[in-house]
Structures are given as C-alpha cells and as structure tokens.
Amino acid sequence: MKKLLLLVLFALVTFVTYAGGYRVSVQGQRAIAMGHTGVAVVNSAELVFFNPAGLVYLENKLNVSAGASGIFTDVIYQNSDLGISSETDSSVGTPLNLYGSYKVNDWLAMGLGVYTPYGSEVTWPTDWAGSHLVNNIELAAIYIQPVVSIKLSDKFSIGGGPIFVTGSVNFNRNLNRTLTDIEGNRSNITVDDSGVSNWGWSVSAMFNPTENFRLGFSYRSEIILEAEGGEATFANFPDSSNPGLPQNGTTTFNAELPLPAELTVGLSYQFHEKWLFAFDYNRQFWDVYESLDLTFGNGSSSLNPRNYQNSSVYRFGLQYDATSKISLRAGYYIDESPVQSGFFAPETPRNDSQGFSGGVSFAITPKLAIDASFFYLRFDEIDESYDFAFDPVTQTTTSFGGTYKSSAFAPGLGLTYKL
Amino acid sequence: MKNNIKYLAVLALGLVACEPEFDNPIDEAGVFTSGEADFSNYVALGNSLTAGFADNALYITGQENSYPNILAGQFELAGGGEFTQPLMADNAGGALLGGTQILNNRLVLAFDANGENPGPAIYTGATPTTEISNNLGNSFNNMGVPGAKSYHLAAPGYGNVAGVSAGLANPYFARFASSADATVIGDAVAQNPTFFSLWIGNNDILGYATSGGVGVDHNETGNIDPATYGGNDITNNNVFASVYNDLLAALTANGAKGVVLNLPDVTSLPFFTTVPNNALVLDASTAASLTGFFQAVTGIVTAQLAGAGVPLAQAQQIAAQYLIQFNEGPNLFLIETEVTATNPLGIRQMTPDELLLLTIDRTALAQGYGSVVLTPEVLQVLGILQAGGTPTAEQGLLVINAISGIEDGDALDSTELMAISNARSSFNATIKALADANDLAFYDVARDLVQAANGGIPFDGGVITSDFVTGGGFSLDGVHPTPRAHALVTNGIIDAIKQTYGAALPSVNPGDFGTVTLSNDVN
User: Fold this and answer.
1) Are B124 and B249 part of one and the same domain?
2) Alpha-carbon gap: A179 to the closest alpha carbon of chain B (Å)
3) Cβ B27–A85 below 8 Å, yes or no?
4) What pLDDT shows up at residue A11?
5) Is residue B30 classed exposed, middle or buried when 0-12, 13-18 and 19+ CB atoms within 10 A define those classes?
6) Name one Pfam family in it (chain A) (predicted).
7) What does the pLDDT look like over A52-109, one tens digit per residue?
8) B320 and B396 belong to one structural domain
9) Closest CA to B462 of B513, B387, B393, B399
10) Which of A165, B40, B175, B253 counts the most CB atoms within 10 A of its CB?
11) Rg from Cα positions in chain A
C-alpha cells in the first residue's frame, strides 16, 4: 500500500493543462493526466469531447465518465518603474464534465457530453493599477452535445454532432484611471448576463492503420455568444450633468464573445503491451476575437481591441498499465498564447506556457474506476502591455504594462463506469 | 495515519511551489534603496501645498493625494515607515468652530441643467463635519498647515484654538497642535524625523498677490517684525532668510536629511492668468464711440484744469493722456491708479504685462467695469459734445464719473508685480543657498511651473498645463495643484533625492492621478 501511495504521489508531482486565451483544457480526467491528449485514444467516454468517431471502438456497451477539477490560478504583476505590484485573488474554478456513450450495434454508437471548454475567472484587487482594464471577470460557457459515432470499417469511423452552448459573464472595471465621485470612489461599470446561448457543431474521424496505431481528427466549430439586453450597472459616477458622462444606474448592454473553432489531429501508439503514447496537435482559431465591443443602453460604448491570433498547442501523453487495476499517466504540452504583443490585457493575462500533467486510474471493480489527475501550467515571466486603453472622458489612449507571471494548477477527480 | 500526514505535507509543498514568483520582486530588499538617506520617519513641513489643500478647501481625498503622501508611498519601497496625516472628517471640505461654520466647503465643477457652461461652484451636497476645536491629540507626519507663512512655522500660539476666531491662530494647526503655545517646527522636530521635506514661503508672497496687492511690501517698509505683519503683506527678505535658516537648523540638528522646494512664480497661476487684461472686445462702432468718449473726456479735463487756473498749454498736455484710442477687437482695460496732479482722474490703460485676478466680477466687466459705463444720461451729454455744444460742469462730471477703472484689489499692476518678483527672487536665492549649505536635496519646482505655463508638461495621457479647469494642473481655486500636479511634484522631489542621496526610488505616473471633481450638488 505504501508503495502504491508513493507511486500515486510521484504521478501527481508531474502534471497537465489549460490553454491560451480563455480556453480551459480540462475536458476529461484521463486525458488531462496525459497532457490533454485524446483525439486518437480509445479509452473512455471522454471521446465524446475528444473524438466522437472513436466511441464506436469502445469495447463496452455503456460507458460513462464524470469528473471535476479545481483550477487554482494565480497571476502576479509588477511595474518596476512605478514601484507598483499586484496579485490576483487565487481564484478556484471548478469545470465539470460528464460523458456517456451507448453502443447501439456493432457500427453505431450514440453519446452525450456536457463540458466547459471556455471560461475565465480573474479577480484583481478592486481599484488596482490596471483597474481601468479589469477589476474582475468571470466567464463560463457550458457545452451540451449529443454525438453519433459510425464505424465505416474496422479501420475507419466518423462522428460528430450539434453543440448547444449556454454562457454567462460578469465583468467589472473602472471607467478610466481617475474618475471618481465626490467621495473619491472610482466610477465603474459592471456587466452581467447569463443564459446567453447559441449552437455549434463538431465532426471527427478516426483511422486505425494497425491494431496498435490510431490516427484521429476532430473539428469543433466556432460559436459566437451574443449577449443582448444584458444588465450593465454604472456605479460611483459623479452626480453631474456633464453630457460626456453616463449617469449612475442600471441599463442594458450588448456584446459578442467568440468561442473559437478548434482543430485537432493526433495519434496514439501502443508500443508495448502496457505502454501507450499519444500526441495531439490543436489549432485554435482565435483570430475571430478581434475586439471586445460593448454598447450600452444609455448610449455609451466601450471598444477594446483584442486582435488575437491563431495559436497551436502540442500535446504529448503517456499511459502505463502498472497492474490490472492501476494505470499511471503523465503528459506534457506546449501552449502558445493567442495574445499578441501590445494586446496583453490583464483580464486574460496569458503568455506561452508549458503544461505538466499526471494521474492515475484505480479500478475498484472491473466496472468502476476512480480517475485522478493533476496538472501544473508553467509560465515564464513576461514584460508586456496593453496599448489600447481608451479613456472615454479624455478621449485618449494609453498603455498599461509591466511584468506578469502566471501559474495554474488543477487537481481533479473522476469516475469511469463501463458496462 | 502518520504516513498519510507525511504525504499530505509533501503534497502541500508541491502546491506552494506552484505559486508564481518574479525573478526580481520589487518588494524585495535591495531593489529600491534610500541611499544615504533614511526614510523610516519622514515628516513634511509646509503650507496648503503640503497639506493637500485644493479647490479652496482641505478634504480627505485631497490630503490622500498630497505630494508628501504620494512620496511616502514610494518611500515605503525603500525603508519608509508609516505616514500619518491629520485627515479632515469628510470630503466636503469646510470646517466648524464650536459648531459654527468658519471655513467654506470645497469647490466642484458644476454643469448647468443643459449640461453646459461648466464652472466652479461651492459644493452643497453635505455640510462640513470637521470641528476645529476637536484636537486630534497627536502630531502627524504631514505637518503641512494651510495658510502658513514662513515665520508662522516658528510662531508659538499659531495652533491655539482660542485664537482662531479672532484670526490670531490657524484653524488647521489648531486641530493637531500639541499645546496652545506649540509651534509647527517644534511639533515636527519632536517627532525626531529621519527625513524631512520643507516647502514654505509661498504664502509670504501669495497673500499679497491674491489680494491684488492691497497689502504692504515689507521690503519697501523695511519692517522686520513679522508680528506686526498683515495677512496680505510681503514678508521682508531678511525675515524670510532668518526664519528659513532657523527652520533648517532645527530640522537637521539630529542629522536628518531632507529635501527643500523653491517657490514658483505665483503670477503664472491660473488665478492670475485666466481673465485676460485685454478682454475688452469691441466692434468698430463701439470702439469709435469709446475713442470719441475719451476725446470728450480730454476736452472736459482741459476745461476743468484751465478753470482751476492751470495754464492752458499745461492743461492740454495733462489731459492728453486721456486721449485713449480704442480699436476694433481686444483692447486693454482701464485701471484705477493714484489721483495726482499729473493724473487728475487717477485712471490709465493697463499695460500688457499687468494681470487681472480670477475673482474679478466678470459680469461687471461685460457691463463696462474696466472701461466706461454708458448710461443714457452720459450718452446725452456726449450728443451735446458731438453737436459742438458745451456741457455744463455738472454734465462734465457725469461723463468723468462714467469711467470705471479696475480697482486695485482686482488686479496686479506693474509695481505690485515687481514687488512680487523681487521678493520671490530673494526668497529663492535664500532657499537654494541654504539647501546647498546644508547638503540637502533641492527641487526647482519653479522651473516645472514655468514649463506648465508655457506649453505644458507631457504625460502618457496628454499634457498638463496651467490652464484653468482644463489644464489638469490646478484645482478649481486656480492656485492649488490637482492630484495630478502633486504627482508631478512628487516625481520632481524623487529625482532630487536620487541625485543628492543616491537613492533608488520609483516615480509615479501622473496619469493615474485625477484633476478636478465634478458635481451638480451646488444648489
């Protein structure tokens, strides 16, 4: 038992994933443990997300995977010219995922997935040095997706299905760097909306050239969340009839937030009875995120250039079936940031990162296994700025920058059931 | 169980190791340093500028944005200690003495109901709650006292609350003076400062200037007893030098280092530059009729002088000074001057360098104050003159009395400007010489105000100028700086400290500091 625990701990010390922008790669405990690879891994119902085409190759008739991770993120900021420093309130996100698949017959499997691939939660101290860009933000998008998986031959299958997305946002920031009411309280705006929904789709394919070697392809469409008539609250504005200033109170807002398309190709290779290697390449089409534009019911607006660029993630995973009951996994990945230099906004302060992941599955019974995973995302510190901070009062654009460093780690726990 | 705890400990270590950390965290020792200085106990001495007075009042947010408080925030990264201030009770400004309001609320920028015509107005959204007679019970790092002149800092009883209502003591110092006969310098030195700043002397000139020069210039009188000085007087140069020397001697007695600031030119403050002295804008016909008016005046004065026995040629020569030519467009206002044998009307046109005060009644200016108030009766007399008739002596007087020169208290004339300039040059020479003699850091803030008044000082959100309301440098009283200007002053001081003491300190971004406050709570 002691040996086992040591083994588990060892696995936990090397860890997994996250991704650029507000993409959060935690869509399966077994995949997370392997660097969030999975487009060519036939292992569990997590395939609903990674590659629906592969579901039809699962041995069991019914497969269920459920899991949750606690994501602990920290971002620190400092500007050595101005002697200012700040740190986000360690936020804890808890993305969930639930997948199930049912093999109708030898060539057809159906599945259903609920997962949260996009989200962000960043809380800076209120009125910190970059508060004119963000005080706090909470974004969440829940994907609900039925899929179908069709085996065209033992070597080739296709899959896919429609995606229903429902999202929510809560975002607060100060109007600019200086405006206050008479008491010195900073004028700020909060936008809040939930139940913002839209549809998308995914398609995928799997090719098995040999018994031990699989290739996978998956594409998930872009989905634009359009918030219309959300609630915007203007607070601590001075009591003034200055025509250039909005009044305190609640109004509506409209905004669009894109959830970019993602293309994944990858492979898995069972190079030993007990060992499996997997590689995934993700291409995330972030260039759709050009600007975050909000228009308010009181006539004011806020235009925030983002200019994201498409980015890639390279993922490597390894699985070792230590005993009939225990599988150990480890992974590594390189995650490019979609944020271009000069557009580094503290609301999604991500630069390039490396992910380390690990995990273990323990089969309690032949049907039920506990999956544990852990990932740690390592960022280099970076000197960056956001050069498009627009002050609606003075009509001037300024830059906000400094040195940032982020980290994220996420332990997760899940269950896999097969029948 | 024991093992489990061990593993948990290992796991916890793993989690801690995940916390991000910079290669060179700025809050770590050695990044910012105090050099030869020691910022552990910083005490600031001065007047309203040091206290954070703005918008014609002292209030909390102004105090929080005072240059000493901003500076102390930067000092904190280099060994600076806590910095305390005698905060007012509210943001309304104003104050009570024995429950009766004795100081006005602050000014705010108010727009009219149509969102137009922004202008300063007294804030009425709250009544003042600061009671002067509530002594705060201890001294503070910020010893700035609004209204203090150089010699006040060493004057016993300046903070005696019993003397406030009679004008013998300062209401702001009364709030935190350690005793009835305490001095500002005494209470400052008693805190045993390791570092000090001293910015004093502005009011030794400013009171004279903002009163339009109605006070007395003691460089002219030679009076060196400040106990006899009035509030609007200019302090004698020797008095200033002596007091300043004593202040520095007291502050440096224990070896403390410090920084001193010189005195900017008060006449470049918006209080003196906002109302132009040539705002008498005339169309061609009005200009012609005003010129005609003064031709009539010249005739009347000639007649009066001749009638009083002055030889005609001499009378004509004296009266000729009133042949004032007005032109289409802007014209210089008329100003009152001493009535003498050579200027029997005591009136002349302003010279281009003379200044009008912000407090001048601009409605009156539009109605003839500074030129001529043309009543129907006056016009009737002018008609008689134009028709070649001779007005009666009474009618002549009517014309003469229609002339409305600007009063002394609304303007600074050349003589007064000279007195101000001479005193400032002398005071600044004293400050610089004593700074050098005591090996103190010296910040030439006067130079920066010149820059603000001539083109402006750029920052990341534009340019800071001395323009009233819009320039960003001055609060709504036209004299005291905005938080943004306090940030500029802080940076100037930091540069001086770096240079003199080899300290490594970060500057602040003026763009992070506000300017004027908007409110429509002005009744």
Assistant:
1) yes
2) 7
3) yes
4) 42
5) exposed
6) Toluene_X
7) 999 999 999 999 999 999 888 899 999 999 999 999 987 677 788 999 999 999 999 9
8) yes
9) B513
10) B175
11) 23
Contacts of A244 (CB under 8 A, 6+ apart): A392, A393
Does residue B251 share a domain with residue B131? yes
Nearest CA in chain A to B487: A82
The alpha-carbon gap from B385 to the nearest alpha carbon of chain A, in Å, equals 52
Distance to chain A for B412, nearest Cα, Å: 34
B397 and B346 inside one domain? yes
- Distance from CA of residue A40 to its chain's centroid? 20
Asked whether the predicted pLDDT for residue A381 surpasses 90, the reply is: yes
Under an 8 A CB cutoff, do B20 and A76 touch?
yes
> What is the average per-residue pLDDT within A396-404?
96
Which of B21, B506, B517 comes nearest A238 by C-beta? Answer: B517
Are A81 and B24 a contacting pair at CB < 8 A? Answer: no
Average pLDDT value for residue range A42-52: 96
- Which chain B residue has the Cα nearest residue A128? B512
CA-based radius of gyration for chain B: 29
A2–B3 C-beta distance less than 8 A: yes
Q: Are A319 and A362 in contact (CB under 8 A)?
A: no
Give the tens place of pLDDT for each residue, B372-399. 988 888 888 888 877 877 778 888 888 8
Smallest Cα distance from A6 to chain B, Å: 8
Query: How far, CA to CA in Å, does A334 sit from each of A10, A377, B165, B236?
Result: 22, 10, 74, 74
Per-residue pLDDT tens digits for B484-497? 999 999 999 999 99
- Which residue type, as a one-letter code, is found at position B342? T
Q: How many CB pairs under 8 A join A and B?
A: 122
Domain range for residue B308?
280-411
Question: Looking at the domain A2-418, which fold is it?
Answer: Porin (2.40.160)
Which of B371, B392, B411 is where one domain is finished? B411
Q: Point out the residue among B61, B64, B115 whose CB comes nearest to the CB of A243.
A: B115
CA distance A88 to B479: 40
Residues ≥6 apart with Cβ < 8 Å to B354: B277, B335, B411, B412, B413, B414, B417
Structural domain includes residue B168: no
ipTM: 0.89
Which chain A residues are within 8 Å of B114, Cβ to Cβ?
Answer: 241
- Quote the CA–CA distance of A93 and A90 in Å, as a whole number: 10
Q: Which of B32, B461, B508 sits opposite A391 (nearest CB)?
A: B461
3-state SS string over B121-150? EECCCCCCCCECCCCCCCCCCECCCCCCCH
Which chain B residues are closer than 8 Å to A179 by Cβ?
A: 514
Q: Are residues B474 and B365 in the same domain?
A: no
Chain B partners of A184 at a C-beta cutoff of 8 Å? 60-61, 64, 91
Which range, of B16-25, B254-263, B506-515, averages the lowest pLDDT? B16-25
Chain B residues closer than 8 Å to A82 by CB: 506-509
Amino acid at A376: Y
